[in-house]
């Protein structure tokens, strides 16, 4: 069956399943049926990896100081958190103009928040500094750097921090059997361990402000996004860590939010990697190369993503998990209402694993 016909038949079948299975309590009809509408056309061949790139940015936030003039805000009156507020945006290597961290910093700033933006070099934050956003040099994988900036921000804010946004990230795309463990360690160091260190360092400031920790996760954590096992695992660990952290910090009125991020457009230059010369997946090397550039073909613009995320984060009771970005709602729906085997089927078709299986079967015959 041709791909187009196959996709059409799958879509029709899935829509029938949706009509059969999608039953929700009356008091949840509005919100969930709105999500259902986003799944009416299933284009599974355009799965996007959240936040692709070699590095990404991170944010911390503080509310506007009492008595200070507020900048223009799209937020309805009465939704601002009370007290003094600060936001910090920290990056593993740089906060890219047009990147997620950069856009989050701009969006919080536009809401009247005092924003602290960080990157390994302040030279990468010039565009934010021009907006009067306070910028700092920080390597989020350096414990000493983290302690230094914590002391600096604590002094500037009087010992409180309203929002800490952990958005630093490192992507590693390679078949599981071909992984370079130096890259694996770097992936976990940036995507998980750096977040843990940041949370420990800023915990006292967040408790003082009854603040919010925001960890930028990924749809790759909830589906087997082919050739991304290391990245997927690091984000899945981040999700699990965040859920446990939310429970443990609840006595202190500190909220923890996971933003399960789908496809978001980036201006990053992709560093595409080739398969090792002895890789068992060489027969589908073209599929592997196609997979690496997938997230840059479509996706939600960064400023749109940032606006949607920030609008929900600054409400009095933000959701525990927030699904934003291209494909995020669809991944939520499939993960919630379909067996896990749906991913094996769909992603094997999308990234050449079914072709690899046929070639291997032929070889063994």
UniProtKB/TrEMBL annotation:
GO biological process: phosphatidic acid biosynthetic process; triglyceride catabolic process
Region Disordered, annotated ranges: 55-85
One GO CC term, this protein: lipid droplet
One Pfam family from the record: adh_short
UniProt keyword list: NADP, Oxidoreductase
Entry keyword annotation includes NADP: yes
Molecular function in Gene Ontology: acylglycerone-phosphate reductase (NADP+) activity; triacylglycerol lipase activity
Gene3D superfamilies on file: NAD(P)-binding Rossmann-like Domain (3.40.50.720)
Sequence similarity: Belongs to the short-chain dehydrogenases/reductases (SDR) family.
UniProt-recorded name of the protein: NAD(P)-binding protein
